[in-house]
Design a protein that fits this description.
Layout (H helix, E strand, L loop, with lengths): L1 E3 L4 E3 L5 H14 L2 E5 L5 H15 L3 H5 L8 E3 L18 E5 L4 H6 L13 H26 L6 H4 L9 E7 L13 E4 L5 E6 L5 E4 L9 E3 L7 E5 L1 H6 L8 E4 L6 E8 L6 E2 L17 E2 H12 L3
Parallel strand pairs: 1-10, 2-3
Antiparallel strand pairs: 3-11, 4-5, 5-6, 6-13, 7-12, 8-11, 8-13, 9-10, 9-12, 14-15
Helix pairs in contact: 1-5, 2-5
Length: 310
């Protein structure tokens, strides 16, 4: 069963941070998803990212394979990933490209697998510019999330989560074909994201769906429409662990609709050495911690290991 979901819209430019934080808190408790508008990233830059993304994915496969992912950065071909590991079908019907920061210790240790400048002369410059811009939005958003949790605005900075974080941009192309068979196919099978928050841009092609109550059977899937110029934001697993389940890491998926679809996701994953344990504002004697402490890098590495085990 599918219906359309109406999500809260957060104006991240509002000077009233407390009211904005309250809206974020309600959205994270009730949905785990919300829109962010007035984020300050120029529309021309967002359009440029989609344009360059299409140019890469339209290259011959042998050219794309020259940037094959290493240390989870670079090109990932069709069917290489299966987000819902309970499925017995082939992998998800999508191809993607991961890129991280070119700066800091992580940028030196895990270099990006850039496509050839001879093929895509504007590609690297466009992607590096977008990465810096969306990282700035993510940092601002995490400050508001901290306020929403009755913490200092710079809480996630002080605990080291944003010190050389493992944040990545993922460019995604979904071919969109609906395969006629007895087995349902997915662009991205049902999953939750791994980190703190995800900031997503999509084109005008639908397909994104969320399930707000993953324990309910049958699952109720609701369509998430695009809001032009705004990010679709969702909470990840590590934030759910930090908040003792107060903020939802909501199950979501992408269904093929018969049309090619592009999206650009920014996963704000914290520094791998950051310890993720229940926040003092989210537990008590009557509501003890539900999750044991874990290093962010250990959790994310294990999730990737399972997802790519084929």
């Amino acid at each position: 069963m599918e219906t359309s979901l109406v999500l809260p819209i957060v104006d991240i430019s509002s000077p009233d941070k407390i009211t904005t934080a309250r809206l974020i808190r309600r959205a994270c408790v009730e949905h785990g998803f919300f829109y962010v508008k007035n984020h300050g990233i120029p529309e021309e830059l967002m359009e440029g990212v989609f344009r360059e993304s299409k140019r890469f994915f339209n290259l011959p496969l042998e050219d794309k394979m020259d940037s094959l992912h290493r240390d989870f950065l670079g090109y990932t071909p069709l069917y290489a990933e299966k987000l819902d590991t309970s499925l017995t079908t082939i992998g998800d019907s999508k191809e993607s490209f991961f890129l991280g920061s070119s700066e800091g210790v992580r940028g030196q240790r895990y270099p990006n697998q850039w496509p050839s400048e001879n093929l895509l002369p504007s590609w690297r410059q466009t992607m590096e510019c977008y990465y810096k811009n969306v990282m700035s939005v993510g940092r601002k958003l995490l400050g508001l999330v901290a306020l929403a949790l009755d913490l200092d605005e710079d809480f996630f900075i002080k605990i080291g989560a944003l010190n050389d974080p493992a944040a990545v941009v993922r460019l995604i192309r979904y071919p969109g074909e609906v395969i006629s068979s007895d087995v349902e196919t997915y662009g991205a099978s049902a999953h939750s994201d791994y980190g703190t928050v995800t900031l997503l841009l999509t084109d005008e092609v639908p397909g994104l769906q969320v399930c707000r109550d993953k324990s309910k059977q049958p699952r109720i899937w609701e369509d998430v429409p695009r809001l032009r110029g705004a990010f679709i934001v969702n909470i990840g697993d590590l934030m759910e662990r930090w908040t003792n389940g107060l903020f939802r890491s909501t199950l979501h998926r992408v269904m093929p609709v018969g049309k090619e679809r592009y999206s650009v996701a920014f996963f704000l994953d914290p520094n791998p050495d950051c310890n993720v344990e229940c926040l003092k504002t989210c537990c008590s004697e009557t509501s003890p911690a539900r999750f044991p402490p874990i290093l962010a890098g250990d959790y994310i590495k294990e999730r990737f290991r399972i997802t790519y085990a084929t």
